[in-house]
Amino acid sequence: MKKRILAFISGTVLLTVALTACGGNSSGAATEASAVEEASDETTSDASGEESSNETGSEADNQITLRLASVVSASELEARNTGMSAGLMTWIDTVEEETNGSITIELYSDGQLASSTDAIVNGIQTGAFEIAHFTTGNWATYSNAFAELNVPYLYSNYDEVHSILEGEIGERMKTQLEEDVPGIKALAYISIGFRNVTASKPIQSVEDMKGLKIRTMDDNLQIAAMEAMGATVTSVPITELYSTLQTKLVDAEENPLSTIYSQKFYEVNPYCCLTNHTYTSTFVFMNSDIYDSLSDTQKAAIDKANQEATAASKEVAEQADEEFETLLEEEGMTIYHPTDEEVQGFKEAASVCWDQAEEIMGGGALQRINVCSRSVG
Questions:
Q1: Taking a C-beta distance cutoff of 8 angstroms, is the pair 81, 122 a contact?
Q2: Phi-psi region for residue 186, left (φ > 0), alpha (ψ -120 to 50) or beta?
Q3: Which entry of 64, 69, 215, 280 is 20 to 30 Å from 48 by CA?
Q4: Tens digit of pLDDT for each residue in 300-349?
């Protein structure tokens, strides 16, 4: 397994990552894609349609190597102790096992191939690499497909969320993404968890949010909710977030507990309030032309991997919340459990964006989601 998490730190890629960190989301896209293309002699995929006699794969299936770009750290992926890492590694394992090795996945962690949203999407569309993933909230500048997942306090537990993701609404979101973003094939939902606020000062109620400079993902609904709570919002790539907190350019951020721990945000934000305001899923996608070139057997393997990854991530994410709360406290973080009254205050403030959500998703969308999610019991 460890062989798949490649230490691809050439001088060219180090320069690329440095430029990206300085340049923000869109400015790094061309540079990162160029660096990948220069390095592709070592890792490029063979999707030309020529048949291979490799004995490990099916005689009918071409041998192909696919590069997967991830911003997640190699240590988290190897540990498989978060919903994100368990889901992604399950996806890779299943694809390779179900294709009998005719597909090999080379996983590049730590943002080595691309780190900003624009660079990742551009890399897939241009074929600089074949597969990637990032959180559904980061798609907002490209598509409203995942708006249902970005509405604060719409879901209260993992079962409710997965009743949406694994049903008709989840499939419709995939279809809309493919329609909105050319060159993208939508694959798997992978649970990360419910998001919580960390800050440089104690946060216990919505009143404590007033005047706070907070980083969120670049999503209109999430930004609107935080602004309604009185905070000032900034959006930066997660690869730059630690330094942004460290230099006090922002006071706070919001993420699932597993991400707060893996990114060591507790070192620069010692306080956490368990607001559980929004659910976060990462989303696996690939170049649509590469997907179309695969055999039916290989496509079936990817379909199975999508299902297996979603299930594995949900199981681990549910278990991980309590475990990471303990780990964060052991690192010295102060974690506050708001009272029901305090949670209601957060909800009431965030509810101002529900009308905006209805406008984006269409009339009656929130009601349909509530009916579907609550039906799980």
A1: no
A2: beta
A3: 69
A4: 999 999 999 999 999 999 889 999 999 999 999 999 999 999 999 999 99
Separation of alpha carbons 302 and 126, rounded Å: 21
Q: What's the CA gap between 278 and 353, in Å, rounded?
A: 13
**For 279, phi and psi rounded to 5 degrees?**
-90, 145
Q: At what angle do helices 365-374 and 158-165 cross, to 10 degrees?
A: 120
Instruction: Please state, in angstroms and as integers, the Cα–Cα distance from residue 23 to each residue in 66, 115, 135, 182, following that order.
Output: 28, 11, 20, 25
CA distance 153 to 93: 34
Segment 122-154, tens digit of pLDDT? 999 999 999 999 999 889 889 989 888 888 898
Rounded Cα gap, residues 197 and 214, in angstroms? 9
What is the amino acid identity at position 313? Answer: S
- What CA–CA distance (Å, rounded) separates 205 from 140? 28
Residues sharing a CB contact under 8 Å with residue 16, sequence separation 6 or more, in sequence order: 28, 31, 32, 34, 35
